[in-house]
Amino acid sequence: MNHNAPLFGRPGRPRSIPRPSLPPDLRDLRDVRLRVMSLPQLRAHGVSAAETSARCRPGGAWQQHLPGVYLLHQGPPTGEERLHGALLYAGRPTASGTVLPAQPAARGYGAPSGRLGPTDPGGGSGEGTGEAPSPYRDAMITGLAALALHGFAAAPSLLALDRLDVLVPRTRRLRSVPGVRLVRSAALPRAQQITGVPVAPVPRALTDAVAALGDSPSVRLLLTEAVRTRHCEPGAVVSELNHARLLSRPHVVDAVDSLLAEGRAIAEDRLYRMVSAHGLPAPIWNVDLRLSDGPPLGGVDAYWPEHAVAVELDTRPPRPGARPQDPAERAEWARCARKRERLEECGITVVHITPRKLRDGAEQQATVVRSALLNAAGREPAARVVVLPR
Predict the structure, then answer these.
(1) Which of 33, 244, 246, 310 is close enough to 104 for a disulfide, judged by CB 3.0 to 4.6 Å?
(2) Domain 270-389: which topology?
(3) How far apart are CA 82 and CA 70, in angstroms?
């Protein structure tokens, strides 16, 4: 037997298959695709299905990891290999026989550039762009595995997960297999690249994780960490949960209540710091306003009585099951509009600020508030308003 057989040459007897010589550095995640390959990739390298089967026999150097996906070594897969194996399985070519690139580590895809490829930031196949198509196509890691990649402390490690969730288009004709659960969606979000792996953004990954969890403490931990660590705003999470129709589950509703309370507390803290950091006059915090001889006007988060300027944090979450034309949603928006009209009729300038604007543009929001305070000098005096603690 020739022990110097090339990497992808014809194997000898099954009981003495030579071990393929792999690149020396196998610890870099960008090279993991040299250790995990799909059958179309092996064929593109000149390895037939029969040769692949022979190398995976007892005593061989390779092993089948998932249907159509092979590890080019023996022993358990690493966490990185499981990720890429799951993506290769979920992104396998269609029955039309699309051939994947012969170089699985083709330049551009998987490089730590923050994009899926030089000319394919949206995660497409790359056809017609001059670049090699992605072997994963539009598949992306989601659920708990995605949260682990995003750095969530409350998410289990990749090796501790018995199953990886992979987000794919609804039309993908594949089944979930042991170790890989396919999550289908009619509309895919734009994937984020984390160390060469396409990963669902945090709101979508949270939703797919919550859908598979049945206890409120675990859900609450994940949602709270998402807000505290500034991965996303509560509204984005609630919107995804609402779209997935998860807000009807009692344990999810309990966790969302905690999430919204956490989000409002964070937004209020940002508002305090904005006023202090940008030299705005100190307002009266968290008060209810009412006319001295009339009905209540409503509560505001900050109020400058000398200038008749109020700031209101807009932390309203989407209503469960609401549509833009639903009566409940229209009633909510009408209530907020009436409140603002009543305040403005009394000569009070209302500045609405969202938590995202406070997070991403505190200086700009401080400029808006300062302008409102300066413009107050040229206005008619406001109606007599009583300020009460809230």
Answers:
(1) 33
(2) Endonuclease; Chain A (3.40.960)
(3) 11
